[in-house]
Specification:
With 251 residues, the protein is mostly helical. It is 65% helix and 8% strand. α4 runs parallel beside α8, α6 (137-152) runs antiparallel to α7 and α7 (157-173) packs antiparallel against α8 (178-194).
Length: 251
């Protein structure tokens, strides 16, 4: 199903959901793709929040999550006032937009999931360092909430992995660095597109508790405000993630 944005541009109102992405993340990803592919132009009005909720048939919470993600990536801006001067607009060109656009070009080339994972894992310590310096109270609350979800989902591998990815995306959004956030999330999306399903074997159940504990320590380190501690745990986290990826491509 498609819904018109303007006469010559359409955008899917129903998107293919990736199992470990929330509906808000999926919607943000679809809108970001339209912006970065220049289907939506700089400064173009996308609509009011009410119009977008109706257009995409989503709840207010889902749309607000998508808007927050896109604002963090500096892809959109909110202007006050009634239509047509107020609403959600495509942001003017910024370095973060150009950087993420460069990553999206990789989708047309031969890039393996392992290559994308290697780069994303290399960014994990930087994400942790920047998040430790720049996170706000709302970021801390969000990270603890996602971590609690992971604990509740220990017996649901798909939900557990979804929350795992959400935790890292939220940490990137807490970095205060829109270029880093955009590149990190673009790489995550590139990896997600390569994964059709989450393979679960006995090794998942053997390591799920240690995986949760490691992510709890990572969150604690980031929220401690100590960049060196955050980097240390993130570096420890990377080999563990590589083992998980090799086993089931679930991180």
């Amino acid at each position: 199903m498609t819904t018109e944005i303007r006469a010559d541009v359409t955008i899917e109102a129903e998107t293919t959901e990736i199992p470990w992405m929330s509906r808000g993340e999926t919607l943000a990803r679809r809108l970001a793709s339209s912006i970065l592919s220049e289907e939506l132009q700089e400064g173009e009005r996308i609509g009011t929040k009410a119009e977008l909720r109706t257009r995409f048939k989503v709840a207010a919470g889902t749309l607000n999550e998508a808007v927050r993600i896109l604002q963090t990536q500096q892809l959109i801006e909110i202007k006050s006032g009634p239509p047509p001067t107020g609403g959600v607009f495509v942001a003017s060109g910024r370095p973060s937009v150009r950087m993420r656009n460069a990553v999206m070009i990789l989708r047309r080339d031969e890039v393996t999931m392992e290559q994308a994972l290697a780069v994303r894992h290399a960014l994990d310590p930087l994400v942790a360092e920047e998040a430790s310096r720049h996170h706000q109270a709302k970021d801390a609350a969000a990270l603890w909430s996602i971590l609690a979800d992971m604990e509740d989902q220990l017996d649901d591998p798909t939900a557990f992995v979804r929350s795992n990815w959400a935790l890292h995306r939220r940490m990137a959004e807490s970095s205060g660095n829109p270029v880093l956030t955009s590149v990190y999330i673009a790489l995550s999306d590139l990896i997600a597109e390569s994964l059709e399903d989450i393979a679960v074997d006995e090794s998942f159940h053997e390591r799920k508790r240690s995986t949760l504990d490691l992510h709890r320590r990572l969150v604690e380190a980031v929220l401690s405000g100590d960049p060196l501690k955050a980097i240390e745990v993130a570096v420890e986290h990377t080999p563990a993630v590589q083992t998980v990826a090799a086993a089931d491509s679930g991180h």
